[in-house]
């Protein structure tokens, strides 16, 4: 598969690399991992990372260059459907490669490399590099490792396999500083720590479901952005009595974004009922009303009852 990517890269002088909106560690890790790999292997090519910058102390900013998209190759990482692609111009590019690990809903690429048995787009990329015996720079390996680390939630979710750990080991063989990556990806400041404690105090339990409804005024009081607040669903993770958990975050324009998580219960079809989607055990939806929240909670409880039968 890497051969096909290499063949396409060699046909173009400009390569635009995209990721999904509201990028997480895997989105940025796969984007900047690919950018750094291409830049190192083909130093004369113009390689641009495209997307709206979000504050992050680790990954670089995107590039602000004018591009003739019609003569460019687009590589789109970690993005299941075209609506979630961050940035413009990809659909004007001469060829499009999709590299992803979400269940297939939209094969928008000319070349689609998707493996939904992996836990990260960074894992898909690392597997290809490993199978191809690529020698990576420390920078490339570090970006990919950071993405794999975040999407696998520190190698703890059901999709983590022997292959994931082999990919991690391959990346680490290029000198990745494991502790530094862990701190860069998971350290929080005191403000966020206070907000997490506030969220924990707001948890509502119903059967094996836990959920939090957080309003704009609540996160703003802690100086937390909507994007950051939305990531905090994991304050309900790793509790024996909680099988499924949801964070409902009020959107700046009103209504709520839902982040659905579970240990072993498939939930992404429930997210789909509310216009969203994602992975089996980690999915999301937007624009839920307070009434939708009640409905979603009931569907989750019913699903857990069904799966216990
Ligand atoms: Mn991902």
In words, what does this structure look like?
This protein has helices at 2-10, 25-41, 121-131, 138-151, 162-172, 178-186, 190-201, 216-221, 226-230, 268-273, 290-308, and strands at 14-18, 46-49, 72-77, 95-100, 111-114, 204-206, 209-214, 244-250, 256-262, 277-278, 282-288. It is an alpha/beta fold. Strand 1, helix 2 (25-41) and strand 2 (46-49) form a beta-alpha-beta unit. The strands form two sheets. The chain has a six-stranded mixed β-sheet. Strands 2-1-3-4-5 form a five-stranded parallel β-sheet, covered by helices on one side. The model has no long low-confidence stretch (mean pLDDT 95). It has eleven helices and eleven strands. The termini are far apart. The longest helix is centred in the C-terminal third of the chain and has 19 residues, at 290-308. It has two domains: 2-186, Alpha-Beta Complex (inorganic pyrophosphatase (n-terminal core)), CATH 3.90.1640; 190-308, Diaminopimelate Epimerase, Chain A, domain 1 (Roll), CATH 3.10.310. The chain binds manganese (II) ion.
């Amino acid at each position: 598969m890497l051969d096909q990517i290499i063949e396409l890269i060699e046909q173009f002088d400009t390569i635009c690399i995209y990721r999904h909106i509201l990028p997480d560690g895997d989105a940025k890790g796969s984007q900047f991992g690919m950018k750094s790999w291409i830049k190192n292997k083909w130093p004369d090519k113009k390689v641009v990372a495209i997307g709206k910058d979000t504050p992050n102390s680790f990954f670089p900013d995107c590039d602000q260059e004018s591009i003739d998209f019609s003569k460019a190759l687009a590589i789109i990482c970690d993005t299941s459907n075209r609506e979630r692609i961050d940035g413009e111009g990809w659909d004007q590019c001469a060829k499009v490669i999709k590299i992803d690990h979400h269940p297939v809903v939209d094969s928008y690429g000319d070349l689609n490399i998707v493996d939904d048995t992996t836990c990260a787009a960074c894992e898909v990329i690392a597997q290809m590099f490993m199978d191809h015996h690529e020698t990576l720079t420390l920078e490339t390996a570090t970006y990919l490792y950071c993405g794999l680390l975040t999407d696998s939630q520190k190698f703890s979710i059901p999709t983590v396999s022997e292959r994931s750990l082999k990919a991690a080991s391959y990346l680490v063989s290029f000198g990745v500083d494991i502790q530094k990556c862990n701190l860069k990806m998971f350290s929080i400041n005191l403000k966020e720590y206070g907000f997490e404690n506030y969220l924990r105090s707001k948890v509502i339990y119903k059967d094996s479901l836990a959920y939090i409804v957080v309003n704009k005024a609540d996160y703003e009081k802690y100086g937390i952005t909507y994007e950051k607040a939305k990531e905090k669903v994991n304050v309900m993770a790793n509790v024996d009595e909680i099988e499924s958990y949801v964070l409902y975050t009020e959107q700046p324009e009103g209504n709520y974004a839902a982040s659905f998580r579970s240990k072993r219960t498939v939930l992404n079809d429930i997210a789909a009922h509310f216009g969203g989607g994602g992975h089996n055990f980690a999915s999301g939806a937007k624009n839920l009303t307070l009434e939708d929240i009640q409905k979603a909670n009931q569907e989750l409880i019913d699903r857990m009852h069904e799966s216990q039968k």
